[in-house]
Write a structure and sequence with these properties.
about 350 residues; alpha/beta; about 35% helix; about 15% strand; elongated
Length: about 350
C-alpha cells in the first residue's frame, strides 16, 4: 500500500541530512516529488563549486528551478576561490531567470574576486518578499526594484563608487553604468523593513552633500507611500547633529507611516542642554507605542561612562516616555543597552556588534 502524501511529507521532514533526502528521491515518484521540493526550496551557496552545480542544474531543469523559494550565499564559512571562474555570475544570472517562484534572495559578493552587480537580475520574473544584496545602485537595480510589488524586507549594503578602470567581467553581462533612473512612486508598496546607508550613494539621493534635509525628505516621501505602518526605523549617519535629529524626529511624527506604530527609532543625537532635551522628550511622547530608542551621546562633555550615568539617563527618558523599555546609548561607536525589566534598569555596557540589529527584532 502506497503511503499518503502527508505521511511522505512527515518522513522527508524528519530525515536528517540533505544526502539522505536525496536518496528518498529514488523510492518512488511520490517520494521524489516531495523530496525534491525539500531539497530545492532553500539553497545556500557556500562556495564556487556549489554555485556552479546549482546554476547548471537549474539551467538544465526548469522543473527544479520552479521549486526554488529561498536562495542565499550569506554567512559562508569559506571564501570563494581566488581562481573562481569568470562565468560564475553569468551562470547565476541564467539560473535566476529560471526561478519563477523565488521569494527570498540574499546575494553578496564581498568574498568574491569578481564582484557581482544587478545585471544578473535582468529579465527575471520573480517577485521577492526579502532581498539583500551589495550591488551598486545602478539602472539594473532600480529597474528590478521598480518591478517588486510585494517586497517587505530590503537590505542594500554600502553603495560602491564606479571603478576608474573596468574590472574583469564576462562578455554576456556588461558592467553597470551610473544610474539615470529613479524609483517609481508606486515601487515596493509593501516595504516594511529597510536597511541601507547613504554615505556612498548620496549623488543618487541628493547631490552635493550635506544637503541632509533633501535626503531626509526624499526618504520620508518614499515611506509615506508604504501601504503599511513602519515598525522600526534606524537611520545612522555620523554627521547628524542635535538640530537635524530634532528635525528628523518632527518628520517622523508628521509622517503617517511612522507615527502610529513605530516601535524602534534610531539613531538620534540626544541633546546636551536640559531645555532642549525636554523638547526632545516632548516629541518622543507623540510616538504612542515606542519601545526601543537608540541615542548618540558622543558629543557630551564629559560623556556618560558608568552604569549609574546610563541608568539615570534611561530613567529620565522613561519619565516622559513610559512605553520605552530599552535604550541603546552610542558613544564613539560603542553601544550600551539599558533595559527596564521587572521594575529594574539593567545596564549592559559594551554590548556586542549584534546590538546594531536590534531594530530587526521588533
Amino acid at each position: 500500500m502506497e503511503l499518503t502524501l502527508e505521511a511522505i511529507s512527515i518522513i522527508v521532514k524528519h530525515t536528517g541530512s540533505r544526502s539522505e533526502v536525496a536518496l528518498l528521491c529514488r523510492v518512488s515518484k511520490s517520494f521524489r516529488r516531495v523530496a525534491e521540493r525539500a531539497l530545492y526550496k532553500t539553497i545556500h551557496l557556500s562556495n564556487s563549486e556549489a554555485v556552479l552545480a546549482w546554476s547548471s542544474t537549474l539551467i538544465d531543469s526548469p522543473r527544479l528551478a520552479c521549486l526554488e523559494s529561498d536562495v542565499s550565499n550569506e554567512d559562508s564559512n569559506e571564501s570563494y576561490d581566488v581562481e573562481m571562474p569568470e562565468e560564475i555570475w553569468e551562470g547565476i544570472g541564467a539560473a535566476l531567470r529560471k526561478t519563477t517562484n523565488l521569494k527570498s534572495l540574499i546575494m553578496h559578493s564581498q568574498n568574491s574576486p569578481i564582484p557581482a552587480h544587478a545585471a544578473i537580475l535582468r529579465d527575471t520574473s520573480f517577485t521577492l518578499h526579502i532581498f539583500h544584496c551589495d550591488f551598486d545602485w545602478d539602472d539594473d537595480l532600480i529597474h528590478f526594484l521598480n518591478a517588486q510589488t510585494v517586497l517587505r524586507d530590503l537590505y542594500i549594503l554600502d553603495f560602491k563608487k564606479q571603478a576608474s578602470t573596468p574590472s574583469r567581467t564576462t562578455d554576456t553581462i556588461d558592467m553597470p553604468s551610473p544610474s539615470n533612473t529613479i524609483l517609481d512612486a508606486s515601487s515596493m508598496p509593501h516595504l516594511t523593513t529597510l536597511e541601507c546607508t547613504f554615505s556612498e550613494a548620496v549623488d543618487a539621493l541628493a547631490p552635493h552633500r550635506p544637503r541632509k534635509e533633501d535626503e531626509m525628505n526624499r526618504l520620508f516621501r518614499s515611506i509615506s507611500r508604504s501601504s503599511r505602518s513602519i515598525r522600526s526605523l534606524d537611520i545612522a549617519d555620523s554627521s547628524y547633529d542635535e538640530a537635524f535629529s530634532m528635525d528628523l524626529l518632527r518628520t517622523v511624527i508628521s509622517t503617517k507611516g511612522t507615527r502610529s506604530d513605530l516601535r524602534y527609532l534610531g539613531t538620534l543625537v540626544l541633546p546636551v542642554d536640559g531645555q532642549e532635551r525636554l523638547k526632545f522628550y516632548g516629541l518622543l511622547m507623540r510616538l504612542p507605542v515606542l519601545q526601543t530608542i537608540e541615542l548618540e551621546i558622543s558629543e557630551w562633555e564629559p560623556p556618560p561612562s558608568t552604569a549609574e550615568a546610563f541608568r539615570a539617563l534611561a530613567k529620565e527618558l522613561r519619565l516622559y516616555c513610559p512605553t520605552v523599555t530599552s535604550v541603546v546609548f552610542v558613544l564613539d561607536f560603542e553601544r550600551t543597552l539599558v533595559t527596564f525589566m521587572n521594575g529594574a534598569f539593567i545596564v549592559d555596557v559594551g554590548i556586542d556588534a549584534g546590538a546594531d540589529l536590534l531594530w530587526r527584532d521588533i
